[in-house]
Amino acid sequence: MAKYVLLYQGGAAPQTPEEGEKLTKAWMEWFGSAGDAILDPGNAFGASTADGADLPASGVNGYTVVQAASSGDVEGLLKGHPHIASGGRIEIHETVDM
User: DSSP letter string over 30-45?
Assistant: First the structure.
C-alpha cells in the first residue's frame, strides 16, 4: 500500500454554529467511511509564510494522510468528501520513500 497526502484548497467555511456542526458531522462520517485508509486525519492550516523563490501562495488550508493501493483507489475514497461538497479542491500526492 502506498501513502498519499491529501492537500485541501478552498472550500466555504461554515457561517453559523449549526453549519459548523453539520460540517463536523460530515467530516466524521467521511473519516468513518474511509476507515483504515486514514493514517493521519490531519489538521487545518492557519496563516502561512514562504521563503525562497517568489512563487504564488499555494492556498493549501489543510491535509490528511491516507493509504491505498493506487491513486484511483484514493479518488474512490473522495466520493462524497465534505471538502469537495463545500466547493473545495483536493490535491492527491503520492509519497516517495527516500
Answer: HHHHHGGGEEEEEEE-
Q: Tell me the per-residue pLDDT of 76-91, one tens digit each, with 9 for 90 and over.
A: 999 999 999 999 999 9
Q: Long-range pairs for 32-41 at CB < 8 Å and ≥24 separation? A: 33/80, 34/66, 34/77, 36/67, 37/66, 37/67, 37/68, 37/77, 38/64, 38/65, 38/66, 39/3, 39/65, 39/66, 39/67, 40/64, 40/65
Long-range contacts of 23-26 (CB under 8 A, 24+ apart): 23/82, 23/86, 26/82, 26/85
Tell if the pTM clears 0.70, that is, is over it: yes
